[in-house]
Amino acid sequence: MRPSGRKLDEMRAVSIETGITKHAEGSCMIRVGDTHVLCTATIEDRVPPFIKGSGLGWVTAEYGMLPRSTTSRMRREATAGKQGGRTVEIQRLIGRSLRAGVDRVALGERQITVDCDVIQADGGTRCAAITGGWVALRQAVNTLMKAGDVTSDPLVSPVAAVSCGLYAGQPVLDLDYAEDSEAGVDGNFILRGDGRLIEVQMSAEGATFSRGEMDQLIGLAETGVAALVDAQAAALA
């Protein structure tokens, strides 16, 4: 039934390759099917003005899509002089999702910026960015711990994300573009590795959904995130 031939509860192939860039304190390339995202993490000895002097650390994110990450060329947002609303919304989502797995007191008064650049898009780019972004963040924190700059691990739990939706009336896990563009309901589910929900974004697109169907999608998301956390751990081993 699915265009890819996958089972309803089957993820796309996932791979996470670390150490992609030379200069960043953390980096990885995450591939979820044909969606590929480069994630890098940068440590800075500064924090935003609104938390300066608080002793709290900060994790933030930036997100972008390369012009030919999609089927037709997109104009670079830099040439327009501003980021689009979708870009701003996604990078805020990535930042607050990653912060949900961080003890900001233990991090200390410093900032880690996670950059997520979509090399190729086939659905689920924000979910891949969050999942890969945590791997880059983990590497950056390992750098701090190795140098003795933090005394206890500030990462309290892995963070990962997956999309689920109703396609042809059936609940499916990890939508690719062909499914996402035709889904009656689609959602993004961000969870910590301990199973705690961070954020759920669900919307009906020409259909509605019941409480029971929402519970089914959350169940699929829990399965998918568990698999992604395993992939994160394997990449970092």
UniProtKB/TrEMBL annotation:
This protein's UniProt keywords: Nucleotidyltransferase, RNA-binding, rRNA processing, Transferase, tRNA processing, tRNA-binding
Pfam families per UniProt: RNase_PH, RNase_PH_C
Entry superkingdom: Bacteria
GO biological process, one term: tRNA processing
Positions of the Exoribonuclease phosphorolytic domain: 10-140, 158-222
Gene3D superfamilies assigned: GHMP Kinase, N-terminal domain
SUPFAM superfamilies hit by this protein: Ribonuclease PH domain 2-like (SSF55666), Ribosomal protein S5 domain 2-like (SSF54211)
Binding-site residues, phosphate: 86, 124-126
NCBIfam families linked to this entry: RNasePH (TIGR01966)
Annotated function: Phosphorolytic 3'-5' exoribonuclease that plays an important role in tRNA 3'-end maturation. Removes nucleotide residues following the 3'-CCA terminus of tRNAs; can also add nucleotides to the ends of RNA molecules by using nucleoside diphosphates as substrates, but this may not be physiologically important. Probably plays a role in initiation of 16S rRNA degradation (leading to ribosome degradation) during starvation.
UniProt subunit comment: Homohexameric ring arranged as a trimer of dimers.
Entry similarity comment: Belongs to the RNase PH family.
Protein name from the UniProt record: Ribonuclease PH
Gene name as annotated: rph
